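Recap for those who missed Tuesday's class. We walked through two folding examples back to back. For each one, the amino acid string is listed first and its predicted structure tokens come directly after. Nothing is annotated here on purpose, so try labeling regions yourself before you check the end of the notes.
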Amino acid sequence: MASISGKSAWAGASILFTTAMLLVVGIFDVIQGLVALFRDDVFVVGSSGLVLTTDWTTWGWALIAWGAVMILAAASLYAGGGFGRWFSILAVAVNMIAQFAFFPAYPLWSLLVIGASLVILWALTLGWSESMGSSAPR
């Protein structure tokens, strides 16, 4: 039976953690979208108080669609390769901008998603070379 080195085990765990976090954030986006569609009375401000002035239905569908993109990013990252990593970085960055736009409506939820997105970005950028065992300079 072949043994797994410490670095390769760490790399696998790091990729799995990052993939799981991407999946969770994507699911959070879908939940936000569903709430915007069906229970818009739970938000702190009306749709006119958002950074992007639109109705809750449009915002809900946009969040559901972006949640699906985040879930695809998680699948792409799990599949491996550089494309999955860069696609995930782009998806998380756009998601953070969208959460800042959504912030007035539900600040606590947005902060939770922004915090999780920061952890994902760290894992995909700064933490990536450490988890992959790269000796490239930072």
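Example two. Treat it independently of the first, because the proteins are unrelated.
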Amino acid sequence: MDQDDDAHPDVEHDMSRGEVEPPPPLSESLAHLLSRLLFRGRRGLGRAAERSRSRLELRQLQKDRDHFWVRLGRTAYHLVEAGEIDHPALRKAIARIDEIEARIDALHSGGKGAADDGTSDLAAPKRPH
């Protein structure tokens, strides 16, 4: 290659005819550039959408898992209360739940400041169902 080729890489030489082909018009170059940018943008958006779907699915699975852990805990609570199962750790957890429920009930039924802060209309949460 001669020095002229290095200066103009877009210029093609037709050695058989000895002619130099001019670079494509600016509009063609811009159109090509824009189409490449759009392709890259669509590809990037596709990857971002896939990552978002994956994160959404992960959050939903974690939410479902947490929901079933809560249901399992409530079921265990009721089974211990009914005397169908018994374990020291379960009895200790139920005693703690009962203690917390009693404190919540006391605050809802006449704890100081309940009427002052507008929370007296709130229904007390029930025991696990």
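Answers for example two:
Strands lie at 12-14, 19-21.
Residues 1-5 have pLDDT under 50 and may be disordered.
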